[in-house]
Amino acid sequence: MTGDAHPARNHPAPEQRFRLYLDESGDHVLKALEKEHHRYLCLLGCWFRGNAYANFHAGLEAFKQKHIPHSPDDPVILHREDIVNCRGSFWRLRDEGARGAFDRDLVELISQTDFSLVAIVIDKAELRAKYPSPSHPYHLALGFMLQRYCGYLNHVNRHGDVMAESRGKKEDRLLSDSYEWVHTHGAWRWSASVFQQALTSRHLKIKPKSANIAGLQLSDILAHPVRSLVLSRYGRRAPTFPAFAEKVLTAVEGKFNRQLYQGTVEGYGYVLFPE
Q1: Is residue 12 part of a domain?
Q2: Which Pfam families does this entry report, sorted A to Z (predicted)?
Q3: How crowded is residue 100: how many other Cβ atoms within 10 Å of its Cβ?
Q4: What is the CA radius of gyration of the chain?
Q5: Of 17, 31, 164, 258, which shows the fewest CB atoms inside 10 Å?
């Protein structure tokens, strides 16, 4: 069969659809690994059920219109670096009062939103040291991510797909190839059938930042602070964070994917590889 392996799953009821939104912090190249930003690649994923996502999309648009008034034809896109540096549309955040209100409302929106969170952190220095011919960091990170997403979907007997933000032609191709490899061949002792049972498409969906995808904007906001949190929990960095990051991390603490019976987060909601 060509195309998607399970065409009957392409049109489930909207409220039953799941989608995993991906973003990353760090890069995939094996260079300058003495620097923390280059040493660790974090692939972060947020997954939503359809009705919860519709509520989040509406809430995010209302939040942006409240704090950064704009024309619907020229939407504001949340991007962590622009927000932190008050660039572009976020120049208003140079005012202390405006910044405080923006931060409070964003943290409240994240806290009230129903989604699940997974962070996969690849230590590229350890990877190169332990494995003579290591797999590509994207392939490893996405394999671990899809294990957790598909494991959840199969457990609750639901199906979903995956969307990532475009990073450039080369990066998009690497991530797409990694996704298709896992879908076709499986990963880490999990057969391909486990992934094919859960995923509605054998292709990764990729959208540009300009598409104004709410789930991708959330993943962008969370990727950097969550990476820092994971590294701190494995003793790779000090457990101190800027004030806003601390508030965001508190808001998402209960959203990490967990082992369904014992509630374990390590290995389910976040992974460091190799340890």
Answers
A1: no
A2: DUF3800
A3: 12
A4: 18
A5: 31
